[in-house]
Amino acid sequence: MKKEIRNHLGEGLDFHLTEGSSPEAPWFVLGHGVTANKDREWAKLLSEALGQRGWNALRFSFSGNGDSEGDFRESCPSKEVEDLGAVLDAVGRPVTYIGHSMGAVVGVLRAQRDPRILRLVSLGGMVDTRAFDERKFGSLTPDEGFMWDIPSCPYSSTFKKDMQEIGTVLPLASQIRLPWLLVHGTEDTVVPFEESLAISKEAAGPVELIPIEGGDHVFSGAAGPLMVEKVMLWLQEQDKQGQDKSSEQS
């Protein structure tokens, strides 16, 4: 794959590639949530597990986040969908996309129109962007306040407008015909577990919802390894089904 990744605006995207057994081995792309970056603990744990399986795992920071180029004030799901497209261009192979929180919104928006995404995994996945914006940042004035009081994460009118216009990705679930895994902590106070439950019921393709009892939004503590275990078991079963299907066709 390319040694550097630039989005449609020419902004460089910071990424880390955990190499698998070969470039031809399966590829996985991991995208983070609001105010986060590629180095969140859940992403590192999962990338390591994928690499140990012999698979290629690329985790990256959306533009304006982490060490990626760009202005955080322009960060929003619609722009991040284009960032993901640039990553897929750079990889040059079909992938499984794994998105956390708002990164899961990005996955749904991209997967329903991009055949390069073969499977979808949503971790603590956001569904209702309008409700999230109002619930978490409704008291802030756009272009004045800061998300979660983080000075490097200004709450912008660009973000608010996009979250309001998207509204919810629930109706798009009927267009997702890919194998889809949703993993969500039952004690998630950032994105309610019920959002994953609701969208899992609307998916058109094979879908599985796995609750992590007592897990929070970022799968901290024991929830992290458990989340990784559940994801890896599902992926290995998907891989086995793919191999069985290939054997039947040969």
Give the CATH superfamily.
Alpha/Beta hydrolase fold, catalytic domain
CATH topology: Rossmann fold
- Proportion of residues in β-strands: 15-25%
- CATH class category: Alpha Beta
**H/I helix tally:** 7
What is the residue-averaged pLDDT?
96
Largest sheet composition = 7 strands, mixed
Assembly type: single chain
Content-based structural category: alpha/beta
Residue runs with pLDDT of under 50 for 5 or more positions = none
What is the CATH-assigned architecture?
3-Layer(aba) Sandwich
Distance between the termini: 29 Å
Q: Give the H and E element order.
A: EEHEHEHEHHEHEH
Total separate domains: 1
In which range does the helix fraction lie? 25-40%
Radius of gyration: 17 Å
* Total beta-strand segments: 7
Strand order of the biggest β-sheet: 1-3-2-4-5-6-7
Concise account of the structure shown:
This protein has 7 helices and 7 strands. It has about 250 residues and is an alpha/beta fold. The longest helix has 27 residues, at about 225-250.
What can you tell me about this protein's structure?
By secondary structure, the chain is an alpha/beta fold. It has helices spanning 41-52, 77-91, 102-111, 129-137, 157-166, 193-200, 223-249; strands at residues 15-18, 27-31, 56-60, 95-100, 117-123, 180-185, 207-212. The chain has a seven-stranded mixed β-sheet, sandwiched between helices. The protein is globular and about 60 Å long.
